[in-house]
């Protein structure tokens, strides 16, 4: 069963608070050290705040029921949140590169790094714990917005670990050029993260089909529970946030009554709802002469 949409909305609101706390800690770490690598880390946290706010707004919109103007509901609103997050990530990465580039030719010593590193480490621990919460809730709710936010926060943790290790190495060796180099690597990692978010979200907006494993479960349910029908063809699937839409043509014997065909459709809908969470099924019944002898053979 899908968790309550109110639970997902509450999680998104809590994510805003957590992101602001982490931003404050990382900004303090940058202010204490003057490290451009920690600046880049703090800048990514600004994106986390904006992304969490966007996810909260998108989840509120997606929770609205279907209406006359939106008969399929509002669940695609979550994809817009994820795309917006991807755009923000790209802008942040470009800003980091702009700041780091001149320091590659004129590196400077990082001030008082130990306290700054400890504060940044604490922020990373908070991020790690919260990323796990977001990913678990997002998968349970099948929420693209929460999953995207969780993946981004987890990538922030990986970035922070790399930055902290590199800065410690710079202090021990005196190779202060590691600071802008790490900032540039952070920017490239952020760009890759943004690309992944945009790619997945655009797939949802473009009505990409379900994954092969889900399609296999759909076909098995139709084959096993469609007793009385002959075949199912022209199967089409798509995702829209937490919903999965399934459409197909069901071929039945020409002499079958409407009532009997309707009973088969009801049985198939029940089977598909057990096989795939949050499924919406549309079945077009056709007589035997419409058979294509392809698709799903009913057992």
From TrEMBL:
InterPro entries, A to Z: Cation_efflux, Cation_efflux_CTD, Cation_efflux_CTD_sf, Cation_efflux_TM, Cation_efflux_TMD_sf, CDF_Transporter
Sequence ranges assigned to domain Cation efflux protein transmembrane in this UniProt record: 15-206
Residue ranges of domain Cation efflux protein cytoplasmic in the record: 211-287
Pfam entry (one): Cation_efflux
Membrane topology category: Multi-pass membrane protein
Recorded superkingdom: Bacteria
Chief subcellular location: membrane
GO cellular component, one term: plasma membrane
NCBIfam families: CDF
Record-given protein name: Cation transporter
């Amino acid at each position: 069963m899908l968790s309550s949409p109110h639970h997902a909305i509450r999680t998104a609101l809590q994510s805003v608070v957590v992101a602001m706390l982490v931003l404050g800690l990382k900004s303090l770490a940058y202010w204490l050290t003057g490290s451009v690598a920690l600046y880049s880390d703090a800048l990514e946290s600004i994106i986390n705040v904006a992304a969490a706010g966007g996810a909260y707004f998108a989840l509120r919109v997606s929770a609205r029921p279907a209406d006359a103007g939106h008969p399929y509901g509002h669940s695609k609103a979550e994809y817009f949140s994820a795309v917006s997050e991807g755009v923000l990530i790209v802008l942040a990465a470009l800003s980091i590169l702009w700041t780091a580039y001149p320091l590659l030719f004129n590196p400077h010593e990082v001030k008082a790094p130990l306290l700054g590193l400890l504060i940044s480490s604490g922020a990373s621990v908070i991020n790690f714990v919260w990323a796990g919460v977001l990913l678990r809730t997002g998968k349970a709710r099948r929420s693209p917005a929460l999953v995207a936010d969780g993946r981004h926060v987890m990538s922030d943790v990986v970035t922070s670990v790399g930055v902290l290790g590199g800065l410690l190495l710079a202090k021990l060796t005196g190779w202060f050029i590691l600071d802008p180099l790490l900032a540039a690597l952070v920017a490239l990692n952020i760009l890759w993260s943004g690309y992944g978010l945009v790619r997945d979200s655009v797939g949802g907006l473009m009505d990409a089909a379900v994954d092969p494993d889900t399609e296999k479960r759909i076909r098995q349910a139709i084959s096993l529970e469609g007793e009385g029908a002959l075949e199912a063809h022209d199967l089409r699937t798509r995702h829209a946030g937490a919903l999965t839409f399934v459409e197909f043509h069901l071929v039945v014997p020409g002499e079958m009554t409407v009532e009997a065909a309707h009973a088969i459709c009801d049985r198939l809908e029940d089977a598909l709802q057990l096989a795939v969470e949050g499924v919406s099924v549309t079945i077009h019944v056709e007589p035997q002469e419409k058979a294509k002898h392809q698709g799903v053979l009913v057992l």
